[in-house]
Specification:
Keywords: Exonuclease, Hydrolase, Nuclease. By secondary structure, the protein is an alpha/beta fold. It has one domain: Nucleotidyltransferase, domain 5. About 40% of the residues lie in helices and about 15% in strands. Helix 3 crosses helix 4 and helix 5 runs parallel beside helix 7.
């Protein structure tokens, strides 16, 4: 092999070192019965060029780790991904300038760095379906890698565990305001990941008080909650 990029079938162009890193990425661990306080959870936030999950692109990734029942500020992740094609005015919402995006990390490198950071841990995000779809699409496009890690949606956990809360629209700002949390800078991946992690800690504490003290039990309760809400919406 040479150090130059090469194609593997119809997949993306990856250098030999990148292929080696991809091969060594940890597969997702199965959900186990350990108490929530003993779990390592990665809280993720993506900033994208828009909300079209088929066309828009991941511009930045922010993440922080919850471990031993607390946010571990020593385990934080932040990357801006380089994008060489024109982006819409919506990018300005994130505070990402064209120059910062042009100077960002090569997408394949940034995604390898992130998946190494995640390891085998489950992921949490607010409105997780969007982040899961966008991250999965980016991994497939730039690494030829499928995303199999389990996601938990903080936007679902909040009303499940706090049904008595009077939260109007149910967005991240609404739940943060309800619990008195403040984001240092909204629509910034690392800041949004941190406030999402703070909210998740409150919700995990609620889950323990409700005897939902493992990820499989919490997942099962979420499935029941979703079915009930689907029936109610018919």
């Amino acid at each position: 092999m040479t150090q130059f990029a090469w194609l593997t079938g119809r997949g993306p162009a990856l250098r030999e070192a990148q292929l080696d890193r991809r091969a060594r990425l940890a597969p997702p661990a199965p959900l186990d019965e350990r108490p929530l306080a003993e779990q390592r959870l990665v809280v993720l936030d993506l900033e994208t060029s828009g909300l079209d999950m088929r066309r828009d692109r991941v511009l930045s990734i922010g993440a922080v780790v919850i471990e031993h029942g607390a946010i571990d500020l020593a385990q934080q992740f932040e990357r801006t991904l380089c994008c060489d094609r024109p982006l819409g005015a919506s990018v300005l919402i994130h505070g990402l300038t064209p120059s910062s995006i042009a100077a960002g990390s090569e997408p394949a490198e940034a995604l390898l760095d992130f998946m190494e950071f995640v390891g085998s841990s489950p992921l949490l995000a607010f409105h997780a379906a969007f982040d899961q779809r966008m991250l999965g699409r980016a991994l497939k496009q730039h690494l030829g890698q499928r995303l199999h890690h389990r996601f938990f949606d903080v936007a679902e956990l909040a009303p499940l565990l706090c049904p008595q809360a009077k939260v109007a629209r149910g967005g991240l700002d609404d739940w943060a305001r309800h619990f008195g949390l403040q984001a240092q800078q909204r629509h910034h991946a690392s800041a949004d990941a941190l406030v999402t992690a703070e909210l998740a800690l409150i919700l995990l504490s609620q889950a323990r008080r409700q005897q939902l003290d493992s990820l499989p039990v919490l997942q099962q309760r979420l499935r029941s909650w979703r079915r009930r809400h689907r029936v109610q919406s018919l």
